[in-house]
Specification:
This protein is about 85% helix and about 0% strand. The chain has five helices and no strands. It is globular.
């Protein structure tokens, strides 16, 4: 039923958030020891959370199902953002932990570029390798500017 599904969803989200908080301490120590910026911790946690859907998207693209791959990747990212951020905010309020969700100007520009590229794909109803390459370049730029601010 919808009620039991909602309860299980909330329990799962709380588990993911608490595990991410637990993992983030060890990852933070590793990032600091490497001399990388603090924002790299968030990138690593996001990569771990999105890994299962990312692997499914990779398998879909290897099977020449580009649209399925895009749907998996975008759906996963939107669900993670749309569900995890409110859950993290709620847990941080309940446990009195500070949270920062802001992004800097260069990240905002890259986010807008990615959204425009995705809008082109969604507007036509089809996607192609060129749009995928553009998104990968935007992602690589984001990673670069996160590690080397």
């Amino acid at each position: 039923t919808a009620g039991s599904s909602m309860v299980l969803l909330v329990i799962s989200l709380v588990a993911v958030v608490l595990l991410a908080k637990y993992l983030s301490k060890d990852i933070e120590v590793m990032v600091i020891s490497l001399g990388a910026p603090q924002s790299v911790v968030g990138v690593i946690i996001a990569a771990i959370v999105l890994l299962p859907e990312g692997m499914a998207a990779y398998r879909a693209v290897k099977s020449d199902r580009l649209q399925t791959s895009l749907n998996l990747a975008l759906g996963s990212a939107l669900a993670s953002i749309g569900l995890t951020i409110p859950a993290v905010a709620t847990v941080s309020i309940v446990f009195g932990m500070p949270i920062t969700l802001g992004i800097d100007m260069s990240s905002t520009v890259l986010l807008l570029l990615a959204m425009i590229t995705i809008m082109f794909s969604l507007a036509t109803g089809k996607t192609n390798a060129q749009q995928g390459v553009v998104l990968l370049v935007i992602f690589a730029s984001y990673l670069f500017y996160t590690i080397v601010p």
